[in-house]
Amino acid sequence: MRKPRNVMHNGGTLAPHCAHASPTTEISMTRQHRLGLCTLITAALLAPLSARAASAKATQALNCQVPSAANGYRGNCPYLSDVLKGDKTFRTAFKKTLRANQVPELAGPEGPMSPVNVGNQVYISGNRCEAHNCGSHNYVIIYSPTTQRLA
Fold first, then answer.
1. Which end of the chain is more exposed for a tag (fewer CB within 10 A), N or C?
2. InterPro entries under this entry (predicted)?
3. Location of each CATH 3.40.1420.10 domain in the chain
4. Over the range 39-57, which residues count as b (16 or more CB within 10 Å of their CB) and which as e?
């Protein structure tokens, strides 16, 4: 069996690893398959780093582990978008409160929701800001799973 060559049609050579050729360079079919395989392997290796719960209940944030130096910044608190997906009661209160206060529903960076003690009651807190414009375009919410109210 002939060993595949890493040769471009214009006579140059390509490195045998996952480096990408310029978009104007024609490359061999073997090289295209290798790039696809490298992309697939890279995605598979990085997937656990970005995995989060697809949906969560607001009550999960009451007992979650907040990221800190003590736990190597490995928390398990759900994000605001995860709770919005997974908890209909929370989603209804969230949207109702934003509408009543004429606040737009931002779709930018967010932090994990976490438990907050206020007086003798435990609430959950979360935050979100406008993508590429966080400055004064953000909000912090406080939610009581007991009363099902958002502030």
1. N
2. Inhibitor_vert_lysozyme_sf
3. 58-150
4. eeeeeeeeeeeeeeeeebb
Other CB atoms within 10 A of residue 126 CB: 28
Choose the CATH number for 58-150 among 3.30.70.660, 3.10.20.310, 1.20.1270.10, 3.40.1420.10: 3.40.1420.10
Question: What is the structure's pLDDT at 65?
Answer: 87
Mean pLDDT by 10 residues, the chain (151 residues): 45 44 45 46 43 72 86 88 92 92 89 90 92 89 90 75
Cβ-defined contacts of 117-120 (< 8 Å, 24+): 118/142
pLDDT at 54: 64
Place of tokens 């907050």: 116
Query: What confidence score (pLDDT) does residue 58 get?
Result: 87
